[in-house]
Target: RING-type E3 ubiquitin transferase
Amino acid sequence: MSKNPGSLQVQVTVPSHFLCPISLEPMTDPVILTSGHTFDRASIQRWVDDGNFTCPLSRQPLDPTDMEDPLPNHTLRRMIQAWYLQHAGCGVDRLLTPRQPPSLKDLPHLIDILASAAHNSPAASPHDSLDALLKLARLSTDRPRTRRIIIHHGAIPILSKLLSRSFPGSPPIVSSVAAVPTPLSHTIADEAIKLLDLLVDPISCAEIDLQHLSCHEELTFSLVNALLRAATLDSRARVSTILTRLQPPLCLRRKIGELQGFIAALADMIREDDGLLSKPALGLLIDICEASNRNRTMATEVGAVETLARLLENRLQQSGGDENDNVEMVMKALELICQCAEGRAAVAADERIIAVIVKNINAAYERSAHHAFHILLLVTKYVQEPEKVKAAALREGALFKVICVAQSAKNSETRKAARRLASALSEAMPPEQLSKTMKII
Model:
């Protein structure tokens, strides 16, 4: 360890027994295993979470207590702290005492605290509920393998009821017990959403019946209510992500979309054009629009077509993998909306929307192009004045782009859609201009 206070170069060597055998870094929270060896807590937990069940040094099987709640080595920690304090004048930063992490032994008690709050028990304390949520979140963050244990202790239905109490009112009311919202209750709701975001993820839920959870209307509508009423952008984005992961059945997605203000709230989130909000909201809008023609019509009525077109315009000025993913999602959402007459009419009514769709066609991004082709095919086939749409597309060089994708696309369905669109566009192009275009290609 080398520090440079002022102009003096000082070399400080950390004692070897202060180093974690796994990371070879100074330990900040040493824990001792039943084998007698000491490791830094974070390192040994990562070791276990990676599927290793033997001591890294002795190779002996780890005791269950080693994996769940290793014993702090207070003596060594005090020695390390004393050494850091002694060498503070050499530029070594003081080692702070680590906060005692929650234990799996505390899990039933923490769940009981939340259950009391969810059922409006007179003994429930909001501050205790908040503390329990924070401890469970830390446990889920530090030890991802414990998420499944927390789920099997019934945390998800309890968190669902807790959200229902935190956001009373309609639509929709999912709890028969209404509570007066307070700043603390909103904070509790935000932390409950963060914990749900940790628990409901593809990895930790791989071995549980996620489809059963998605059929649980109380959970779904608690999340919908939270999306409509949450005060922070972070919570709204997390709720959108959770709802997308849950994959509610078609009938439930249809019902969600018909709730007053829900699709408008998604459009508002997309309109923010914030990476935190727009991508989760786009994913949820796609799920909702897939459910029914009525939902697609409602999306058109709240201005989703114009909002999505503006998002495409903004993406033309940007580049990168995430942005290309967003373009694909926007194109997919527009394609779904164009499956209703109102959506097609909204696209055809504004030549700028046609132009921005064509400008975003790129042979390098085949899936985005695939959705763009279907948008243009739907609009040119079913609107009253298709020639105007074709003319607007041709002015942006659509035929050239479509033929290029048709020649390079790997997916047969994309090539087929490209050929159909090229045929439709070529019918609207003057023969001499068509001849010039074909010569260029």
